[in-house]
Amino acid sequence: MQHPYVSFEGVTRAYPGHVVFRDLWFGVNRGEFVCLVGHSGCGKTTVLNILAGLDAPNAGGVIVDGQEISGPSLDRAVIFQGHALMPWMTAEQNVAFALSCRHPGWGKAKLRDAARAALEKVGLGQAADRKPAMLSGGMKQRVGIARALAIEPKMLLMDEPFSALDALTRGALQDEVARLVAEANQTAFMITHDVDEAILLADRILLMTNGPDARCAEVVMNTLPKPRNRATLHKLPGYHALRDHILEFLLTRSRTLAGTRPADWDPKSPPDVRPADAPLPAAAE
Amino acid sequence: MHRTVPFWQQALLSALLLGLFLGAWELAAGRGGGGTGVAVDPEYAALLGQAAAQGGQTPFPRPSEIAVRLWELLRDPFYVRGTNDQGIGVQVAYSLLRVAAGFGLAALVAIPLGFLIGMSPLLSGALNPFIQVLRPVSPLAWMPLALFTIKDSAISSIFVIFICSVWPMLLNTAFGVQSVRREWLNVARTLEAGTLRTAFRVILPAAAPTILTGMRISIGIAWLVIVAAEMLVGGTGIGYWVWNQWNNLSLSDIVIAILLIGIVGLLLDRALGAVQRLVAWQD
Fold first, then answer.
1. In chain B, what residues touch A71 (CB-CB under 8 Å)?
2. SS in 3 state form for A137-183?
3. Which residue has the higher pLDDT, A215 or B170?
4. Tell me: the pLDDT tens digits for A162-178?
5. Span A239-251, mean pLDDT?
6. Domain residue ranges of chain B, discontinuous segments joined by +
7. Where are the domains of chain A?
8. How close B204 gets to chain A, by Cα (Å)?
9. Does A285 have pLDDT greater than 50?
10. CATH assignment of A6-75+155-284?
11. Going edge to edge, which strands form the sheet with A272-273?
């Protein structure tokens, strides 16, 4: 197996008297979409912040592209939970600001054209001159996506990017992200607690137990064929088994597995499961 | 509940109140005593004026008299006939110049320093005791030290304006910078924006409305203090002019000066308010 693009190696994050998670190992391959699923308080956002370089582990390290990370990088763009747009800039200026960081030598006109192009890609060409206060929640998050993709990062990090949106908007944006990520063969890592979102987008889904002292209990391989879309997703064979498996984990096992570590537990390779493959032989009977 | 009231109603009531006030004043301030009519030494009378020499009191001016005097003053506001006789416009201009100089210097010091304090918890903690002690000091208390060290009354009054306008700007800038939202700083960090780009493109615009609030408070205080400072140091300026007219017992002039000081103060505040609207952002 090739070296993964990202690899978490024994990462521990703790505050005085409180271990968020301990000895976390996982990798993300190039072009792969990995989702991290777990309840609030299990340190999901901390995992993402460490990968983004905004937070640092107490022990262990994160290797990206063969090098241990020491801080934030333009190669790992973040789509934040709150859109995190600067309210004094128009949508276009927000994207242009990111572009000006990536390309310090670019002139105003070039930045503007590139920002417009990035906004067109997420269907916001006509709203480029509006400030965030004049945009709906979904449009703001689209600008956030455009800003992250405009700098052509090697990896996209998303921290529950759609959790603040209504269901309809969320669905539209999930499809949009699925399309954009597939088009660019973008490596992506996403935090979510929305099971369907994870099944729609992810190649692999990491399941985390409840905190404190959370761990990655298992890795669910999403073997449903790609490209997927929301309209037909639930008709795919194996979808319900996959969904039930993750739901069951979130409802009960995330709690019962918390804290206890089985004797044969190897943090370096949490068990892989393929629930979507299971019903096939059953269906053949 | 606060109902919205049509503007014309407010304006009408304002005008009515003003009319009532001026009318009552006009009636109340009747002619003062015309003196006792006792014959006095003509030389004494020439020195003090007939009425005063005979024991009469200067009457409080009536609005109509003040209006006449105002017209006189405003017809030629910028004349200069020697050091002690200059138009009211010249005096206001002197005061504005001092406020501009003191306030400008204070902004040049307070905004960068406030930025540093806001960004550095160490500096914030270290400088806080000094700021807390010096801030409540009346700026006029600095005047003797300023006169002693600077030895120039005009520059001393500028220093006093400086010292009174520096605190609100300093504290507001520091507060504004401290309150910049974590998520915007995180955006800048993930974009590797660098210190300068983050300071000018993210922190400064984010804190600008708070900084402008501080500037607005400062200019108000500066305009309050300049009148008192000029009364102390004398020479020129609207404060000195007020004191001079008090010595002349020209009460009309003092009423006019009060009105003028109020209007100029209002305009200064409105000017900064306009700038504040320019930098305001809505979340």
1. 189
2. HHHHHHHHHHHHHHCCCCEEEEECCCCCCCHHHHHHHHHHHHHHHHH
3. B170
4. 988 888 889 999 998 99
5. 92
6. 88-279
7. 6-75+155-284, 86-152
8. 11
9. no
10. 3.40.50.300
11. A76-79, A155-159, A187-192, A33-37, A204-208, A216-221, A272-273
What's the one-letter identity of residue B138? Answer: S
DSSP B261: H
| Preferred mutation among B190, B192, B203, B204 to probe A, highest tally of A CBs within 10 A | B190
CB contact under 8 A, A101 and B184: no
> What is the sign, positive or negative, of the torsion defined by CA atoms of B187, B189, B194, B198?
positive
User: How many angstroms separate the Cα of A227 from the Cα of each of A180, A183, A230?
Assistant: 12, 11, 10
SS3 state of residue A26: strand
The verdict on a CB contact (< 8 Å) between A101 and B186 is no
**Topology of B88-279 in CATH?**
MetI-like fold (1.10.3720)
Q: Beta-carbon neighbour count of residue B216 at 10 Å?
A: 21
Q: Which amino acid is at B210?
A: T
Name the residue type at position A212: P
Backbone angles phi, psi at B221, to 5 degrees: -65, -45
The beta-carbon neighbor of A73 closest among B192, B208, B281 is B192
Give just the sign of the alpha carbon dihedral B74, B75, B80, B82. negative
